[in-house]
Amino acid sequence: MNAQKLREKQQPLKRKFRQNPESALYVLHAEGRLHQDRIAVQISSEGVGREVGLHPATGGDGSFACSGDMVLEALAACAGVTLLAVATAMEIRIKDGLVKAEGDLDFRGTLGVARDVPVGFKAIRLQFDLDSDADEKQLATLMRLTERYCVVHQTLSHGPDLTISYA
Asked: What is the spatial distance between Cα 10 and Cα 14, in angstroms, rounded to a whole number?
């Protein structure tokens, strides 16, 4: 894909969303089937399934995906796709690249071992290793726009309203 093809795909959507803001509102879905016998959940997001269970640091055997890893995977995937779209729009060629997301997690919080230790990631780092002919100014703009438009990054950075319920 090049910048022109990307614009051709996005312009009608941008026009539609400007004219009818409600048409830009989507609800994305992920659901999971609970399997208490294995302490695992079969996750399905838009038809793609994946089984998620306990991390080895919480009693798992390592045979299931860990939801913490999935948060980092979602961040890396979203940031990578966003960077590529922005680079394409800016006509910056990325010859090769790698995106890494890593997070610091103290499982004492998760296991209730230490009440003063928060549950969840203490810090998350996102790093790109890019092979590109872009200059420093272009790369700085690319990073700034990637951060601005990456849905997962913005969600993690600003914390949405989140509710929990049961039926």
From this structure: 6
